[in-house]
Amino acid sequence: MDIAILGYGTVGKGVGEIIASKTPGISVKRILELPDRLTDPRMTSDYGDILSDGAIELVVECMGGIEPAHTFICQALSAGKHVVTSNKAVVAAHFAEFAQLAADNGVSLYIEASVGGGIPWIAGIDKARRTDTISSFMGIMNGTTNYIVYSMDKAGIDFADALRDAQEKGYAERDPSADIDGIDVANKTIITASIAFDCPCVRDLPVTGIRNLSKRDMELFAKHGRIVKLIGRGVQDAGRYAVAVEPMAMETSSLEANVPANFNLVTLVGDTVGELKFYGQGAGMLPTGNAVVQDVLDCAEGIRRSYDFSSGCTYDPDLLRSDYVLRTTASVDAGEPYDEGMRLFRGLTAVEAKELLAATIENDPAAIIVALG
Question: Hey, what domains does the chain have and what are their CATH numbers?
Answer without folding.
Answer: 2-118+288-300 (3.40.50.720), 123-281+320-372 (3.30.360.10)
